[in-house]
Amino acid sequence: MDFSLTEEQQLFAKGVRDFALGEIAPLSSKMDREGIVDPALLEKLRGQGYFGLCLPKKYGGLELDTLSYGLVIEQVARVDAGISIMISVHNGVGSTPVMLFGKEELKAEILPSMARGALAAFCVTEPGAGSDAANMQCRVERDGDDYRISGEKIWVTNGYHAEHLVVMGRLEGQAGAKGISAFLVDRRSEGLQVGGKEDKMGLRSSDAVSIVFDSVPVSRARLLGNEGDGFKIAMMALDGGRIGVGFQSLGVAQAALDVAATYSLEREQFGGPLADKQAIQWMLADSATELEQARLLTHKAAWLKDQGEEHGRHAAMAKLSASETVGRIVDRALQIHGGYGYSKDYPIERYYRDARVLRIYEGTSEIQRMVIARRVLRDYGG
After folding, report:
1. What is the pLDDT of residues 51-88, one digit of tens each?
2. In whole angstroms, what is the distance from residue 28 CA to residue 126 CA?
């Protein structure tokens, strides 16, 4: 088994790292403080092709394999987790449903603009339907051959800037998961209203908003897949999205370990550096070991996806493992910093806040355990 990155992947990751340190890092504190993404940075991200990472070359994308895509998310997350989730949502749950389930005419029309950086968002969560996505109440009514959507979606990442919205809604008269259909909605559609940005604890350079649909017209050409395919499309998109969150978690965890190790070497207590103390060494050792375990599992999930094999269980495992691991690592890293870790003058304070939501979005840790358990039981005939 070969666990090494190719020379091309290593060079690619280094290029992303250099870009993140040079262009994102100087702005991260300001973007976190103000809760915005710098407009000039957004243009630079577009110029680097970061919004077409997984799209086919014929649509203007880079057509990266999943592991190379994940390296982008990881390296950006080491510097700014909010920017990384903006990129991940767009490339994952935002554009993938269109790429896999859109009609050819729709793909030819929309995907080139997505590759150029016309942001995409994924609208599933509702005030009464979070983890229980099959219970969504957003209504879809037939309007001749076309449709109208009414309802509210919340916690829509990229929603403030997005031009394209993948929206899940329940077709009139249909119940359960099979009653849900998926549509691509234009942000400028009549009856669509974007709410204010959530004042979040972390990931503050990334926006999350509510979106209200008041009888928004959608043509049949923008139906993704067939009627009733929405839940299946959402779950398939989330399988890939969870791999992205796994890589994002790796990036934040690596950043926390980096600053913890550096601080332990620089900070002197009791006649020598903290790094000489066994208690500190054990915290660093546990963090490094757990990070490597999560990285191997996340890389395997990416490899399975690239092989075209069933990867839902491993995507859930990667997301569960990496998001839980980063929570432990940032906690140890802040502890190593002592009181200074609680100050906004040190980056670990931001990493600590950014890490918490990784156990919640794109499926909570509890949902991941349910997904994994169902697949385990299925293997035993359950």
Report:
1. 999 999 999 999 999 999 999 999 999 999 999 999 99
2. 30
Please report the pLDDT score of residue 1 as a whole number. Answer: 64
Using CA atoms, how far apart are residues 246 and 129, in angstroms rounded to an integer? 24
Its pTM stands at 0.95
Strands 139-143 and 164-171: parallel
The alpha carbon dihedral of 278, 279, 280, 282 has a sign of: positive
Cβ distance 102 to 59 under 8 Å?
Answer: no
**Whether 362 is catalytic:** yes
Query: In the chain, what is the straight-line distance between the N-terminal and C-terminal CA atoms, in Å?
Result: 32
Among 43, 190, 362, 366, the active-site one is 362
Residue 285's contacts (CB-CB under 8 Å, 6 or more residues apart) are: none
Both structure tokens of 341: 């870790």
Domains and CATH numbers, the chain: 7-116 (1.10.540.10), 120-229 (2.40.110.10), 232-379 (1.20.140.10)
Q: If you search the block for the tokens 């890293």, which residue do you land on?
A: 333
Output the six-digit token pair for 194.
Answer: 């974007």
